[in-house]
Structures are given as structure tokens and as C-alpha cells.
Write a structure and sequence with these properties.
Length: about 220
Amino acid sequence: MTASRGFLRRAALTVAAGAAALVLTACGGDSDGNSHDMGSMASESGSPKAGSSGKPGAGGHNKADVGFAEEMIQHHRQAVDMAELADSRAASPEVKELATKIKGAQDPEIETMSGWLTAWGEKVPEDMAGMGHDMGSGMPGMMSADDMADLEKASGAAFDEKFLKLMVEHHEGAVEMAETEKTEGKYGPAIDLAEVVITAQTAEIEQMNKMLDKA
């Protein structure tokens, strides 16, 4: 009987120790020793925390933010259409390289802004490319349907010159729109994107003007 009671006491102590270890593991960390809390889990699995961009008002948006996203999506789409024409019509490798750079930067920005509009319960603008509509009204720097038709007809050195002149004007319009967003917008990530647009497209305007001077 004594040996039996000793065995039962040792078994009970082993079970208790195992249960305590499980509790400590659950509270203190995972198998790699990493601790967790509900806040960090939420930030990993959900949306970025409000204010993560470092800008005031990153967690909210206003009408200026919505307008910026709606119009810049259409503005970017036209720039991408122009850049795609350069693949088959441009003569200068430098023009083709610039067009590829523009498309590579603006395609992801279109997706980002479309995501914002969807999250805000707003409609993403319909892609009007190839429908014969003039999208230029009200947006600075936008090409008219006639401008785009002329660009499509050009090729070689004539295309290069026309493309650069039109894209300079297009970029200047985008910079103007981005400046307005910086002044009137509230949503931190949109203000951040506006700053990116201003920096990148101002540099490209300078590059294109130098290319035109050499032509």
C-alpha cells in the first residue's frame, strides 16, 4: 500500500508540473520563444494601424482624398496607355526605358488607390481607354482623345518627340493634382503617395526636357 501511495503522489506531481508548463508557454510565448499579445496579432493579420504612415489623420479620409484617388487613377491609366505605345512606336532606347519606368511605377499606384476607394465604399472609376471618350476635362495635363489618336499614328523619331512633349504636360498636371492633395487631403497614405508623385514626376520632367533639348 505504501509503495502504491508513493507512485500515485509522483504521478500527480508530474501531471501538475506539465499543466503549469503549458500555462506558462501559452502566456509567455510560442515554441520559438516569441511573445504575443492581442495588439500585435491584430496588426499582423489585419489592416495597418491608423497613423502608421507617420502622418496626421492617417486613420480617416475626406472628400479631397476621394477625389485625388478617383482622378489620379484615370490620370495614371492614361500615362500607362501612352507608355505602352512606346514599346512598338518609339525609336529611342532612352524613351522606351523611360516609358517602362513610368508604367512600372504607376500600375501599382493604380492598384493601391483602387484599394482605398473600395475600402471607403466608393466606386473605382471605369477604365475609359479605347472608348473614344475625352477624359481630359477637369484634370490638368490629361490628353484629349485627339492627342491620343495623333500619338497612336506617330512612329520613330516623330513619336519620341510627341511622346516626350505630351508626357511632360501630363506629369506637370499630376504634380499639380498631388500638390492639391497635400494641401487639402487628410488620409496619411494618400498624402504620402502625393509626395512620391511630386518627387518622381518632377525628376522625370527634368529628364524629358533634357531629352527634348538633345532632339
